[in-house]
Amino acid sequence: MAIPRILVVDDDPEMRQMMTQFLRRNGSIALPASSEIEVRSHLDGGRVDMVLLDVMLGDENGLEICRRLRVEQDVPIIMVSALSADHQRMEGYAVGADDYIAKPFNPDLLLARVKAVLSRTRRSASLVHRRNTKAFEFNGWSYDAKSGEVLSPAKVQVTLSRRETALLQVLLANPHIPLTREEIAANLDVTGEAQTSAEASGRAIDVLVGRLRNKIEHNPKDPQLLKTERGVGYVFAVDVAEVEG
Length: 245
Description:
By secondary structure, the protein is an alpha/beta fold. Helix content is 42%, strand content 23%. The strands form four sheets. Strands 2-1-3-6-7 form a five-stranded parallel sheet, with helices on both faces. The protein has a five-stranded antiparallel sheet with strand order 11-10-9-8-15. Helix 6 (162-173) packs across helix 8 (202-216). The model is unreliable at 123-132 and 190-200 (pLDDT under 50).
């Protein structure tokens, strides 16, 4: 499952930092922005799964930005504003916002609304994607998403544990994106049950990464696929191709 990439657009540095840090602690990749130019730069530069957009952005109007974005693409947008009257909320929905959250807000409520909108907007696309995606290919390797079969470039089957497979799936969904240990841990609960603090610890992720490297790297001591990103965590450093049915 791809880790959600959420664009946090607010001209207040403290609010922007608070929201990005909170989202990162809860398993998302949060990207800060303060203007329409920065928003468009992020949208043009890579995948963005949601935009949290403040209504009042200094000299810019978040509602107008939302209106323009909605003409061009269907990225989910949640308006965030201190303007909370009913008619102001309706203005947000009228320009194409998927939801509207009034400041000040409970961060847990924000997270719940983010998850709800992502779930609602992704559900159909995700079902089609899972049904049609038969395999991923990377650097001569292949991974069959249905059978769980992993084949080396020499077409030798490599057996992965359940946790190693879950880690590989996270990496294949996020190639070339540096991921923190916390982001990886947040997306490794393949059972649907809460992990213990030990399982989610950075050390446990390091051990798991080491085990996967031993199985897919030609030289685990000099990894070329799953590299360490200094000061961040890890990055899957090769292109990943999806083979559609």
